[in-house]
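We close this part of the discussion by returning to an individual protein. Part of our work consisted of pairing the sequence of a single chain with a tokenised description of its backbone. No coordinates are needed to read the tokens, only the vocabulary itself. The amino acid sequence and the backbone structure tokens for this protein are reproduced below:
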Amino acid sequence: MEMEESLNLKFAALADPTRRAILLRLAKSDATVSQLQKPFPITQPAISKHLRILEGAGLIERGQAAQSRPRHLNVIALNEVTTWFEHVRTLWDDSFDRLDEFLTATNNDKGGD
């Protein structure tokens, strides 16, 4: 999967508050569908749809434990999102640094502090 398409799927999955809450829950420990559904006022098919979207984005994976299939967080997939945010943050920091230098130079040219 192309990097941009992969990021698009991840950001689309993260756009929903229920899916973000599911990821926070899975950050604590693996959980079954019924355990993940418990805190939400939604049906089992609705929670399953959220899980399919998260799986499709690669953010969670389905495990195998006896009769159940607990989901777990895919930390490596989250690193892709973190890396993208870090890149954007660096660009913003550089832009703000240049703006600060410009404003300082402009202020000094006008006889300011």
The beta strands are 60-62, 71-73. The chain has one domain: 3-109. DSSP finds five helices and two strands in the chain.
